[in-house]
Amino acid sequence: MKFKFTWGHGVILALSCFIIFICTLIFTIEFSKNTFDLVTDNYYEEEINYQKEIDATHNAALLKEKPKIEIISESGIKIIFPKEFNYTNTTGKFKLFRANSQALDINKNELDLSPSNTLLIPSKVLVNGNYTLKLYWKKDKINYQMEIPITWN
């Protein structure tokens, strides 16, 4: 007896392959080891104050001289503030966060500027990968904010 392949067999074969493909995708995504944490746990509270962040980002964009970021592989990430911002008249904080793991985030609620207007994030607390540095500071009741992507190797 000879088997004859008809269009009905083709439809069943195509549907079976499609179902197997979809199931493979579902199980691959479900059991993958990647975790994606929220950027913040206080999402709704921060969303209410988003206009203040927009204004602070605009204020930072208007600065003639902005803070500079230097990546020094031996010592860490160095943030250099302009001369007008110093440890006597500037307050602020920074957040260095990773999108894939909240456990690797670094938060500092107070800028400890040295007399040379620099701040160092030591290399021993950094793990290889992509970070986003959110830098917030205030001088003369004016808020400033910068967001800088950083790749640490």
From TrEMBL:
Transmembrane segment boundaries: 6-29
This protein's record includes keyword Transmembrane: yes
One Pfam assignment: FixH
Alphabetical keyword list: Membrane, Transmembrane, Transmembrane helix
Protein name: FixH protein
